[in-house]
């Protein structure tokens, strides 16, 4: 029996990252290393911020949320990918595929919203410093972070619910290493018009609107920094937002390539590489980017692991 009365496919076959058997051992080690680095790096960030009262500020509160999102996003994708490399083939049940789709879409959307909230925090700190404590009070930060998780959860519930209504009559081979909305729609033998409409709406909100809000925030931030007279003041102001800007650029580039431009003519292999960027590489790099560009985080990390220099 299938997961619902309309679905004849009871499991999907994931193509994996590469079909070349000569690369399997290398990919297994590489993805395992990425997984461990992403988990350890983000856990260290959360631990360091939690144990250091000096970092209990809005900027680091949002950074903690980002680290938690990276942990769960990586844990949603890489274990199944590693399982497929060990078993030489990978299948995922219908329910398992829908579950992965739900959580992956949830965390990806939440990260886009969170990056916008972090940009607003930096805008307030640099452009409205006298009102920062009021505009970014703890209740406001909790409300922003809670909205990030809830809004994305509502969105992914809609997408997953619509996906669950589709008929999957075969073939059941997913030309990817994970279950995503674009790849699953290609396998449906039901009309996907409503799904595509909701994808456009979600792309417009999560991708376009949030990207524009982030860019507007940084437009004001750059203008404010340029008005600072001293070179030291400019450098100090820019250092507080440069790491976030790097993360925004990396993350949006990958997500827009996959969701906003799915029919851009790119090859499936390129799509896998891009998906790897936002599900594994970005969560691995984020702790490094923020720790290398932030003296306070490095000091806090040294307290957690004294051997860190």
From TrEMBL:
PROSITE patterns registered for this protein in UniProt: G_PROTEIN_RECEP_F1_1 (PS00237), G_PROTEIN_RECEP_F1_2 (PS50262)
InterPro entries the UniProt entry points to: GPCR_Rhodpsn (IPR000276), GPCR_Rhodpsn_7TM (IPR017452), Olfact_rcpt (IPR000725), Olfactory_GPCR (IPR050516)
Annotated GO MF terms: G protein-coupled receptor activity; olfactory receptor activity
Any single GO CC term annotated in Swiss-Prot or TrEMBL for this entry: plasma membrane
Superkingdom of the source species: Eukaryota
Protein name: Olfactory receptor 13A1-like
Source species of the chain: Castor canadensis (American beaver)
């Amino acid at each position: 029996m299938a997961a619902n009365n309309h679905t004849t496919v009871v499991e999907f076959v994931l193509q994996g990252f590469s079909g070349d058997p000569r690369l399997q051992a290398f990919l297994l080690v590489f993805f395992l290393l990425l997984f461990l680095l992403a988990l350890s790096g983000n856990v260290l960030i959360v631990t360091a911020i939690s144990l250091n009262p000096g970092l209990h500020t809005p900027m680091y509160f949002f950074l903690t949320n980002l680290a938690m999102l990276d942990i769960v996003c990586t844990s949603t994708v890489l274990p199944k990918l590693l399982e497929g490399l060990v078993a030489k083939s990978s299948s995922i049940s219908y329910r398992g595929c829908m579950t992965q789709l739900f959580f992956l879409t949830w965390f990806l959307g939440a990260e886009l919203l969170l990056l916008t909230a972090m940009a607003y925090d930096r805008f307030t700190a640099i452009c409205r410093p006298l009102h920062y404590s009021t505009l970014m009070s703890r209740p406001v930060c909790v409300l922003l972070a809670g909205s990030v998780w809830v809004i994305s959860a509502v969105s992914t519930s809609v997408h997953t619910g619509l996906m669950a209504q589709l008929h999957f009559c075969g073939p059941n081979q997913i030309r990817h290493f994970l279950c995503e909305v674009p790849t699953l729609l290609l396998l449906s033998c039901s009309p996907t018009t409503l799904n595509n409409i909701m994808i456009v709406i979600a792309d417009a909100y999560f991708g376009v609107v949030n990207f524009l809000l982030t860019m507007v925030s940084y437009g004001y931030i750059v203008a404010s920094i340029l008005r600072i007279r001293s070179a030291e003041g400019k450098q100090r102001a820019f250092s507080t937002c440069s790491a976030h800007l790097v993360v925004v650029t990396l993350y949006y580039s990958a997500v827009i390539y996959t969701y906003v431009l799915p029919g851009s003519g790119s090859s499936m292999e390129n799509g896998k590489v891009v998906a790897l960027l936002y599900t594994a590489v970005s969560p691995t790099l984020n702790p490094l980017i923020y720790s290398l560009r932030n003296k306070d985080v490095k000091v806090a990390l040294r307290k957690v692991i004294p051997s860190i220099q």
